[in-house]
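Weekly puzzle thread! Below is a chain. First person to post its structure in token form gets bragging rights.
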Amino acid sequence: SCHSTSCRRCGTWEQTRLLGDAAGHDARPLSGGVIIMSRVDVTKYPDAVKAMYGLERVAREHGIERKLLHLIKTRVSQINGCAYCIDMHTKDARAEGETEQRLYGLSAWQETPFYTPRERAALEWAETLTLIASHHVPDELYARTREHFTEAELVGLTLAVIAINGWNRLAIPFRAEVGSYQPGTAEAAAAAPASA
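Winning reply:
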């Protein structure tokens, strides 16, 4: 089917087929025929990417396990409406053995028995920090979270939440291409030595 749209590669406005046309225009459809075009490829700015991966590295060094990081990244991305990051972190979680049931239940984690007390504390902490403008962090939440996390781990958890909120705020306005991520590529990029 045809839509009047802008080509993802060249930006021209014309009638293009949803999956491209003879002129080589590359239109990428989403549900309802909406076309989303990438604006900026942030990976072309290695200093920015290095800074973001640095926050994640500190989170891991402070004892936040990968399985929990995937849950936190997915939940925060759900709250922020970041389709690219939801796609990425659910793929990574599944590749590392996370169950579909726990991923499907994540948006209603309070109502399910699928999560450990430590995961529940981390999810509540992550949600509160993500929505901090609407309500600050109450002492009761801090105390509940500290029952499951050392001070160093809480710093790591907080940096993980800051990092995923930052990634969401890069992916959403720059329109990272949803569905293009392959499991494990983010970790490979984070582990790569920085270029001089």
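Puzzle host: Confirmed. Bonus trivia for everyone else. The chain has eight helices and two strands.
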